[in-house]
Design a protein that fits this description.
- The structure holds two protein chains of two kinds.
- Chain A is an alpha/beta fold.
- Chain A contains eight helices and nine strands.
- Chain A has helices at 7-10, 58-65, 109-119, 124-137, 153-166, 183-199, 211-217, 242-257; strands spanning 13-25, 31-42, 47-52, 73-78, 94-97, 171-175, 203-208, 220-225, 229-235.
- In chain A, strand 8 and strand 9 (229-235) form a beta hairpin.
- The N and C termini of chain A lie far apart (41 Å).
- By secondary structure, chain B is an all-alpha fold.
- Chain B has one domain: MetI-like (MetI-like fold, Orthogonal Bundle), CATH 1.10.3720.10.
- Helix content of chain B is 82%, strand content 0%.
- Chain B has helices at 2-11, 20-32, 34-67, 69-83, 87-97, 101-126, 130-137, 143-179, 186-196, 199-227.
- The chains are: A alpha/beta, B mainly alpha.
- Chains A and B meet through strand 5 and helix 3 of A and helix 7 and helix 8 of B.
Chain lengths: 258, 238
């Protein structure tokens, strides 16, 4: 185990001078970094939107928090531990909503939501009750016994969100979770998702390439430039005036176009 | 086909094409005889034991090959080589290498159906959705839970197909294996009918094997229909 005391342990998520390379080299023979010397801290209870262009290292950063990748240099700590080495410790403490719903086609909506609870050895009756509750919260009452193929894209993504929330994990990771949906459905789900995160006191990291989505969802916004260095880190005031939001949008656009 | 046979029975002598009535009567006789039923049961047992053995070994080999490139480099050409060996050669090898009749038959059954089981399960393991595996792994399952919730349901359709395909192969091979040395079973009975030049008996015993294959295929289809009820069905056929 790699539990740490001190500053690294106090944040929900901490990147300390993290770099990641995948062995690819540029024309001069130098290693190409997917992430270069990234340092950041995310406090417990924050809803952070991470914004950046395609290929800027968002997904690499996401996979490091999820414990799927190990940094080449520096330290990544999630709740004070190394998510790559202490992978199993995060069982029930971290849940992920992926870009596509990734529902198991052989399971009903209810059984899909129960999946994470099965990993936690929760008794079948409680599992069922919790899964039903979350499906109901996400407006899917009556669809518990439907298989994924009979649900619409929006409904399937709701099931995926219910699956993540049902485990009661403190940390939620979302990887462009609403990008495959039509704008109306995505807008509604974004609102529901943000409300559920705040109501339930979760820490959430939301990866996106949409400026609008990042500004609508996050309490805090991180804009990344290649190779995953922080170009902008600010709190978002959801009550800001239209002019202020437009100015911020223009500023982000300028950073992303560089 | 039955009508054509009956026409042939009217045109040729009974030792070449016996009437279907006679064949049916022989079938009834087999069903009514405990000794004959025991012979059928012996063959069925050998088929199922051979298939189960090949399935277990093939499943283990496929898992090893899916996990390790070294295992794949070794087993893949070996099994491909085995696929080229005729069933009759395995029969000869088994007679030379082993003494016990039942073990000989089991060996032949396993070796002739092993490559197909292994390659079909390996293909299914490789075709599993990486996205779904990553999703299940994000919940940090134990190995047993990963197997139960993800791997088994994902490869089940291919496992059932592999059983269906190998069932027919096994029914053909078992007769060859029983012809050489067995003192009971459908293959042994077929050999007796051949020595007595009894076509009706040969046909009746063959039909027992066909009936077994049909019953097993029906059972596997029923399992398929139940296990894959989640699949979307298009109203437009292929």
């Amino acid at each position: 185990m790699t539990q740490e005391r001190g500053d690294l342990a106090e944040s929900a998520i901490c990147f300390d001078h993290v770099s990641k390379t995948f062995g690819r080299r540029d024309e001069t023979g130098a290693l190409i970094a997917a992430i270069g010397d990234l340092s950041l801290e995310i406090a417990a209870g924050e809803l952070v939107a991470v914004l950046g262009k395609t290929g800027c290292g968002k997904s690499t950063m996401f996979n490091m928090i999820a414990g799927l990748l190990d940094p080449s240099e520096g330290k990544v700590r999630v709740e004070g531990r190394d998510p790559f080495r202490d992978f199993d410790w995060y069982r029930g403490r971290m849940a992920i909503v992926f870009q596509n719903d990734r529902l198991l086609p052989w399971r009903t909506a209810l059984k899909n939501v129960e999946l994470g609870l099965e990993m936690l050895d929760i008794a079948p009756a409680e599992r069922r009750q919790r899964a039903q509750l979350w499906l109901s919260k996400l407006g899917l009452k009556g669809h518990e016994h439907d298989y994924p193929h009979s649900l619409s894209g929006g409904m399937r993504q709701r099931v995926a969100i219910a699956r993540a929330f049902a485990t009661n994990a403190k940390l939620l990771l979302c990887d462009e979770s609403f990008s495959a949906l039509d704008e109306m459905t995505a807008q509604r789900l974004r609102d529901e998702f943000a409300a559920l995160v705040r109501e339930n006191g979760k820490t959430a990291v939301f990866i996106t390439h949409s400026i609008e989505e990042a500004m609508q969802l996050g309490d805090r916004l991180l804009v990344l430039e290649r190779p995953a260095r922080i170009a902008l880190d600010l709190k978002i005031d959801q009550n800001a005036s239209r002019e202020e939001r437009e100015a911020l949008r223009a500023r982000i656009r300028t950073i992303l176009s560089l | 086909m039955a009508a054509l046979w009956q026409i042939a029975a009217m045109m040729f002598p009974p030792f070449l094409f016996p009437s279907l009535v006679k064949v049916f009567a022989r079938c009834l006789h087999i069903f009514g005889s405990l000794e004959d039923l025991t012979n059928i049961a012996a063959t069925v047992g050998r088929i199922l034991a051979g298939l189960a053995g090949a399935f277990v070994v093939g499943g283990a080999l496929a898992l090893a090959m899916a996990r390790s490139e070294r295992a794949e480099r070794f087993f893949s050409p070996t099994l491909t080589f085995f696929q080229g060996i005729p069933a009759l050669s395995w029969v000869v090898f088994a007679i030379i290498w082993f003494h016990g009749i039942e073990f000989r038959i089991f060996f032949i059954m396993v070796l002739t159906t092993l490559p197909a089981f292994t390659f079909q399960i390996l293909g299914a393991l490789r075709a599993m959705s990486k996205d779904l595996i990553e999703m299940v792994q994000s919940f940090r399952p134990t190995r047993a839970k990963l197997f139960r919730t993800m791997i088994l349901p994902a490869v089940l359709p291919d496992i059932l197909t592999a059983w269906k395909v190998n069932l027919g192969n096994a029914a053909r091979v078992v007769v060859v294996a029983e012809l050489v040395g067995a003192t009971g079973g459908v293959g042994y009975e077929l050999l007796q009918q051949q020595q007595m030049f009894d076509m009706a008996g040969a046909l009746a015993w063959t039909l027992q094997l066909v009936l077994f294959v049909l019953v097993m295929q029906g059972l596997l289809s029923a399992i398929e229909n139940y296990a894959f009820r989640y699949r979307a069905v298009s109203e437009r056929s292929l």
